[in-house]
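HUMAN:
Could you generate one sequence with tokenized structure?
ASSISTANT:
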Amino acid sequence: MKPFVLVSLLALFAWTTVYAAAPEKKIKWYTLEEAMKAAEKTPKPILIDMYTDWCGWCKKLDADTFSHDGIAKYINSNFYPVKFNAEQKEAVTFLGKEYKPNGERTHPLAMTLTGGRLSYPMLLYMKADGTLITAVPGYSTPQQLEPILHFIATNAYEKQQWEEFSKSFKSEF
């Protein structure tokens, strides 16, 4: 019996050590209200993943890109990430204004944030005060998304053009 207990304890120790050392794969998603409140206290850019339940490319973005260890870790460290269903039925308050669904398929805040140019998925990048920096429509692989995240998080967009930045970008993956 003692060898069984010893082997069981060793297996449990090995499993918890491996599990505890595993890299973070999950993004800590905020609501838009939570992100804005957090950005008020500790300013960081806000990343909004605008999606719909029926969008296949949105699901692929979640499965392939947002689950990538390096992407998840970088987003959690440098952004307040928000999941926003562009067809949700709940009211949302943004910059002091309440946006209530009005019977249309698309949420009025999605229309406002995108200027009516809808495409799913769409990643919206904002300053901590809610000012839109840019919107990037469509699916991105981890390798395509990484330089965009760095361009926004480091404020490089304030000093140089995307083309110049992307040519000199060195991947951390």
Q: What stands out?
A: The longest helix spans residues 2-21. Confidence is low (pLDDT under 50) at residues 3-24. Helices lie at 2-21, 32-41, 56-65, 69-78, 108-114, 142-153, 162-168. The first strand starts at residue 46 and ends at 51.
